[in-house]
Amino acid sequence: MERLNHNLAAKPASERLGYLAFVLTACVFAVFFVMPIVWSFANSFKPAAAALADPAALFSKAFSLENYRRLEHVGAGWYVYAGNSVLIAAGTVLLTVLVSVPAGYGFSKFRFPGQSLLFVLIMATMMIPFQSILTPLFLILKVFRLQNNLFGLVLIYVTFQLPFSVFMMRNAFDAVPKALIEAARIDGASQATILRRIMLPIALPGVATVAMFAFLNSWNEFLAALIFLSDQNKFTLPIMLVNVSSGIYGIIDWGALQAGIAVTMVPCILLFLLLQRYYVRGLTAGAVK
């Protein structure tokens, strides 16, 4: 409130009403986005009877961890599915960054025959619906004996994440002045040294943006994990949520479902809060040349 009053006092009288309307509108939208998260967390701590009797109620007088304990008995247990999701997300982030950073640097700072055509072809793959190539992807994984394999799923996620990531990194490197590279070359630095010690620190917001998108997409992805994984011990958290929502005899366990949603949301929220500054800067740098 003190900051709001200070901003209002600093603006001319003609602009104060518009600024106040903007702040109020932003607060309303914030409430709409935050309330489902608050509702999910609040319901995850309800006793099972209270969650089943009134799933829409926001709070309950009783506090219980029973819903989280029941998740341990869903399939192989939520911790097994969470571990699989962590491995898949970490592998996707690592491979996406390792491939997209040098690729974006090459498209940004080097000139070679067919460069524009190759970049257009990479971007064109973003237009291919994922569902339309599920069968070819399954056959490819089968040939390499990677079906029902977490690493095979990582390769699928990296493949579909790379076009956007290469685009972001190319634009991020485009924003770095060429004078820095020329000065480093005069000092005798190799291309690998220039990329590692000069370009990467400057383009770090772009790398953080690429890593965050790769993590969120692989962490929340459902369809590929459902199709390419058949072993229950290799399922991910999104598949676990479907099993919980199906329930026994069609009865949904609302408390356990909200607990599973809370477990799935926590890493995403924490990662965004930690990297939001880099995320915004990287997204802006990647969108504007």
Automatic annotation (TrEMBL):
Q: Which InterPro entries match?
A: MetI-like (IPR000515), MetI-like_sf (IPR035906)
Any one of the GO CC terms: plasma membrane
The membrane-spanning stretches of this chain are 20-42, 78-105, 117-144, 150-173, 194-215, 259-279
Q: Which residues form the ABC transmembrane type-1 domain?
A: 82-275
The alphabetized UniProt keywords are:
Cell inner membrane, Cell membrane, Membrane, Transmembrane, Transmembrane helix, Transport
| Location in the cell | Cell inner membrane; Cell membrane
Report any one BP term from Gene Ontology: transmembrane transport
Topological type in the membrane: Multi-pass membrane protein
Record family assignment: Belongs to the binding-protein-dependent transport system permease family.
**Free-text function comment from the UniProt entry:** Part of the ABC transporter complex UgpBAEC involved in sn-glycerol-3-phosphate (G3P) import. Probably responsible for the translocation of the substrate across the membrane.
Subunit structure of this entry? The complex is composed of two ATP-binding proteins (UgpC), two transmembrane proteins (UgpA and UgpE) and a solute-binding protein (UgpB).
Q: Which PANTHER family match?
A: ABC TRANSPORTER PERMEASE PROTEIN MG189-RELATED-RELATED, SN-GLYCEROL-3-PHOSPHATE TRANSPORT SYSTEM PERMEASE PROTEIN UGPE
The name of this protein is: sn-glycerol-3-phosphate transport system permease protein UgpE
Organism expressing this protein natively:
Rhizobium leguminosarum
Query: What gene is this protein a product of?
Result: ugpE
